Amino acid sequence: MRLFNRDNLADAVNLLPGVTLSETGARNEKMIYIRGFDIKHVPMFMDGIPIYVPYDGYPDLARFNTFDLSEIIVSKGFTSVLYGPNTMGGAILIWFPADLSKYSKSAPARVMLREMLSRVMPISEVIRKPGMFRGAGRTVPLTISTFPRILHQQNYQYGAEFGISGQLLTSLKGGFNYTYIQYQNKSGTDQLLNIPNHKLFTYLQYFLPLNGLSLLGSVEYNGDRYSSSDAVRVANSYTLVNAKAIYEMSHGFSIEGGVNNLTDENYALEEGFPLEGRSFFVNVSYKY
To answer: Which of 24, 124, 189, 266 is the most exposed place for a label (fewest CB within 10 A)?
Structure first.
């Protein structure tokens, strides 16, 4: 989460294979799909407590920031009956630190630049357990899974996903994941909304000889997706390229700067609602 500057729950979970990010409604709320199932069938639990919205059942995941989280666990497919009802697609578990005395603290400041417009984000306290993010400094084995499902008598949804990440060389770390989802409606013409057939995410982090300095680059690809069930409105495929430099100084200070959407891609998660273009950022943090 911290490595890729994912500041809210939706963007953080979107790093995983099988997860699709979407924005919907008049308030442009962020949603996610787990292997094609929306949040109504993938409930969210905060320290074991289910999170619900009585109005329409769709909480805005952009409202949940990751600054004070210790871990996010995404359970896909069949889950324990202890989670309760509505878990056809899985469950999302959000955990806060249990013992704050064992966690390091940092105060980050972030500056975002967008087309000559600068904005200083408020300073917030981050509570994070060192080394808690899985895959940091160690090899993660290859994971492959398939998920065939029959939704109704004539409707089929199936796909596959795989991912691998770890230390490639002494000074090089990387990862890659890919998701394929296909939907067939043999009883009508309605299409599955907001779900691209193909999604890919990959990154490389190179550690320079200068102690504490590293370069990080990532690429995310999403295929075409339907924005209306009659297949009239289609959000085109897009590729996002992000890059940043990280310098971890002594005495707990670290600074990083980079650019999101390096190629200034014109893209949208829902047709007709374009998202931001190229943006620059600088982060400064201090751990104590």
So the answer is: 189
What digits encode the pLDDT tens for the residues 182-232? 887 777 778 888 889 999 999 999 999 888 899 999 999 999 999 888 888
Topology annotation, domain 9-286: Maltoporin; Chain A (2.40.170)
CA-CA-CA-CA torsion sign (67, 68, 73, 79): negative
d(CA 283, CA 255): 6
What is the model's pTM?
0.80
Interstrand relation of 155-169 and 140-146 (parallel, antiparallel or unpaired):
antiparallel
Gap between the Cα atoms of 125 and 104, Å rounded = 10
Assess contact for 280 and 116: CB atoms under 8 A: no
Instruction: Read off the amino acid at residue 187.
Output: S
Q: State the residue for tokens 């897009």.
A: 238
Q: In sequence order, what are the residues at sequence separation of 6 or more whose Cβ sits closer than 8 angstroms to the Cβ of residue 101? A: none
Ranges of each domain in the chain = 9-286
Q: Which pLDDT does position 14 carry in this prediction?
A: 92
